[in-house]
């Protein structure tokens, strides 16, 4: 199991489309992906569930902890962190 | 047996199988047989597939027209449709609780919203809208199957149990199939409560958590006298209720069989009772109840979802004419539209809520905002249209025009000018018009304090206690958390009413009282003692009020009122009433020798 923290950078935070991109990306890996807000680690949500991700209310500046557990965990974690750091591909504001 | 206390908002007692309704989606909870679980799951799956097909089509169309970015929103919705928190969760609820698909879907959405509301910033509310969109689509796609009927017959007579009840929904209830009403929010003066009384449906409001405790099909009793909901009532409770219902039916029968006309107090003072109505169907009920006219016709309920300027003169004229002709020879007091700006634009008449807000938190329509006469004066054309229709209907009977929410002489003058202009326009068509009195509704403290100034230019007054109480006491009657502070016997209320009567006296302007306060027996006697001899109330409350007035003397009422206005608390005032008027103890709507009033323990 691997985990890493990453900061939400895009202006709108993890909104519906951003969460959708995350789910698509996570869905491309076999490993289990969970996400939590760093400051309240108690509520972990399924990284492959768009509703779960929306429940995180991860707005700009929020630090999230992504955990990957499975055969392709290394690759998955790298790919997902890059997506978040790139602002989910949102248009720069 | 489980007893849940609430506020008694419409008298009477009723029992029957519970039908549950969540206002937000109007979903009924139905229990299903084990054999039907597969069918409900199938309905969910079909609705999901249909929704997915629709969303893919929308996605394709939007990406052609608006580009990939916006189209991705629908891709997000497709993901939500597939999310295990939604449809799969609803499937599990169907299996574990044996309930219909609609209900299960609502529960799944509720669970999601419950977590969401904990965070509750603006950003999130927007996201919830996306999910609500998907849930709404699923619900629509469930509908055709639901219409074919699946199990319990929702048309069978039942007690409706709801988290909240929008007046627009309440207005459509069929009294023949709704035995009683119990809802979690609201208060005695909420419009749904008023409607329940006018339809003579026993109702309890403010029954906290009642929807959570009721199993599908459970027997539930609504005690609109005591203010209690009883789930799975014992045989003893049912027996007692049966006796009470029979006694009430007998006394109501006696009252109705008596000729209508003015009622005299035991010492011979004339008291008049008029009806508050908002629908033509209520006219016969009003007459049967002994109403000597309509004291308040709430025209905004005629709007439905129409904008005020889409309700044409001819259609209005026909309704007003019918009311006055059917009530002849009695006077009909018609109140101009009491709507807020969004309702004026076609957002539906009467109070209503637009879905997504946390349960148990009510907000009344712009209580201190742009509504009623303020809206009418801002929509001058629509206002004059209404006034023309009223002026024309006035040729067919006695109509008085009542202006709601007036807070200054300026507004009264503006409205009078609109009236003159409307009359002038009608007269240009060659019609001669009868003189139509124009009155002011006293519901804003500013108006109550300046009745002497208004009296110089108004022909009559009508005290609207529902709003007057909430503005005097700073209590939002739709907010369940403070609804208990809504107290008609508060010393301030008695004093302000006394002051209104006194200020109107020098110019001999009649003062009627059209709030629901007068439907409470104890309050009615106090009002009588303060000098109010003209009341308007829901038709269902009139027979009892008439019966009560006959049994007391004006002298006793006056002496009790004089003493009451000097007492420091409403509890003292209630105790005084109980001591001075032993008749209240045995009165059907009274309880334990005390009149029932919200604000009283």
Give keywords.
heterodimer; A: 93 residues; alpha+beta; Histidine-containing Protein, Chain: A; four-stranded antiparallel β-sheet; 33% helix; 28% strand; B: 601 residues; alpha/beta; Glucose Oxidase, domain 1; Enzyme I, Chain A, domain 2; TIM Barrel; 4 domains; nine-stranded mixed β-sheet; 47% helix; 14% strand; disordered C terminus
What does this protein look like?
With 93 residues, chain A is α+β, with helices and mostly antiparallel strands. Chain A has helices spanning 16-27, 50-55, 73-85; strands at residues 2-7, 32-37, 40-46, 63-69. A four-stranded antiparallel β-sheet of chain A has the order 1-4-2-3. Chain B has 601 residues and is α/β, with parallel strands linked by helices. Helix content of chain B is 47%, strand content 14%. Chain B has 23 helices and 18 strands. In chain B, helix 1 packs across helix 5. Chain B is globular, with a radius of gyration of 26 Å. The interface between A and B is medium-sized, with 20 and 23 residues.
Overall tally of structural domains of chain B: 4
Derived from helix and strand composition plus strand pairing, the structural class of chain A reads alpha+beta
Structural class by SSE content of chain B: alpha/beta
Overall tally of structural domains of chain A:
1
| Biggest beta sheet attributes of chain A | 4 strands, antiparallel
CATH topology name of chain A: Histidine-containing Protein, Chain: A
β-strand percent of chain B reads 5-15%
CATH class of the largest domain in chain B: Alpha Beta
Q: What is the share of helical residues of chain A?
A: 25-40%
Spatial arrangement of strands, main beta sheet of chain A: 1-4-2-3
Q: In terms of per-residue confidence, which ranges of chain A show pLDDT below 50 for 5 or more consecutive residues? A: none
The most extensive interface between chains reads: A-B, 20 and 23 residues
Radius of gyration of chain B: 26 Å
CATH superfamily of the largest domain in chain B: Phosphoenolpyruvate-binding domains
């Amino acid at each position: 199991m691997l985990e890493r923290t990453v900061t939400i950078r895009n202006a709108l935070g993890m909104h519906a489309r951003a969460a959708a991109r995350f789910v698509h990306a996570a869905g491309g890996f076999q490993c289990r992906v969970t996400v939590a807000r760093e400051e309240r680690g108690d509520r972990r949500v399924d990284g492959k569930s768009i509703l779960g991700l929306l429940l995180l209310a991860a707005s700009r500046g929020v630090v999230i902890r992504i955990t990957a557990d499975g055969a392709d965990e290394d690759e998955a974690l790298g790919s997902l962190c890059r997506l978040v750091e790139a602002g989910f591909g949102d248009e720069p504001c | 047996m489980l007893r849940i206390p609430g506020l008694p908002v419409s008298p009477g007692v009723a029992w029957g199988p519970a039908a549950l309704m969540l206002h937000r989606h109007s979903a009924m909870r139905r229990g299903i047989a084990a054999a039907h679980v597969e069918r409900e799951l199938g309905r969910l799956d079909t609705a999901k597939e249909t929704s997915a097909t629709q969303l893919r089509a929308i996605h394709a169309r939007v990406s052609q027209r608006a580009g990939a970015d916006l189209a991705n929103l629908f891709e997000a919705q497709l993901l939500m449709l597939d999310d295990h928190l939604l449809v799969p969760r609803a499937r599990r609820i169907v299996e574990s609780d044996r309930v219909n698909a609609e209900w299960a879907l609502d529960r799944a959405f509720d669970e999601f919203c419950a977590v969401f509301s904990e965070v509750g910033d603006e950003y999130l509310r927007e996201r919830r809208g996306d999910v609500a969109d998907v849930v709404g689509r699923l619900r629509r796609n469930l509908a055709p199957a639901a219409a074919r009927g699946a199990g319990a017959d929702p048309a069978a007579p039942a007690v409706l149990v709801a988290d909240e009840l929008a007046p627009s929904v309440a207005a459509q209830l069929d009294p023949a199939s709704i035995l009683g009403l119990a809802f979690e929010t609201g208060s005695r003066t909420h419009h749904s409560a008023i409607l329940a009384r006018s339809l003579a449906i026993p109702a309890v409001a403010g029954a906290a958590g009642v929807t959570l405790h009721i199993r599908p099909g459970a027997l539930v009793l609504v005690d609109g006298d005591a203010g209690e909901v009883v789930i799975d009532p014992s045989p003893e409770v049912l027996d007692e209720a049966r006796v009470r219902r029979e006694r009430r039916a007998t006394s109501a029968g006696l009252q109705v069989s008596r000729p209508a006309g003015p009622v005299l107090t035991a010492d011979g003072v004339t008291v008049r009772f008029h009806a508050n109505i908002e629908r033509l169907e209520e006219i016969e009920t009003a007459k049967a109840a002994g109403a000597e006219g309509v004291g308040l016709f709430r025209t905004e309920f005629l709007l439905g979802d129409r904008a005020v300027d889409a309700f044409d003169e001819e259609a209005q004229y026909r309704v007003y004419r019918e009311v006055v002709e059917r009530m002849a020879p009695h006077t009909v007091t018609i109140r101009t539209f009491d709507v807020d700006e969004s309702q004026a634009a076609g957002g539906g008449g009467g109070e209503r809520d637009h879905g997504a807000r946390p349960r148990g938190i009510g907000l009344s329509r712009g209580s201190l905002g742009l509504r009623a006469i303020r809206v009418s004066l801002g929509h001058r054309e629509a206002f004059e249209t209404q006034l023309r229709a009223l002026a024309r209907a006035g040729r067919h009977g006695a109509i008085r025009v009542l202006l709601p929410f007036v807070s200054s002489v300026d507004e009264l003058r503006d409205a009078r000018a609109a009236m003159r202009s409307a009359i002038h326009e009608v007269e240009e068509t060659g019609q001669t018009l009868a003189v139509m009195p124009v009155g002011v509704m006293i519901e804003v403290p500013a108006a109550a304090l300046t009745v002497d100034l208004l009296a110089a230019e108004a022909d009559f007054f009508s005290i609207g206690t529902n709003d007057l109480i909430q503005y005097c006491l700073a209590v939002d009657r739709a907010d369940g958390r403070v609804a208990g502070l809504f107290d008609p016997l508060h010393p301030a209320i008695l004093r302000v009413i006394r002051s209104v009567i006194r200020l109107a006296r020098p110019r001999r302007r009649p003062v009627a009282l059209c709030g629901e306060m007068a439907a409470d027996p104890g309050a009615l006697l106090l009002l009588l003692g303060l000098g109010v001899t003209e009341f308007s109330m829901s038709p269902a409350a009139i027979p009892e009020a008439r019966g009560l007035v006959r049994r007391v003397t004006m002298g006793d009422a006056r002496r009790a009122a004089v003493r009451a206005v000097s007492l420091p608390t409403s509890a003292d005032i209630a105790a005084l009433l109980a001591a001075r008027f032993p008749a209240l103890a045995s009165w059907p709507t009274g309880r334990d020798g005390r009149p029932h009033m919200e604000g009283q323990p």
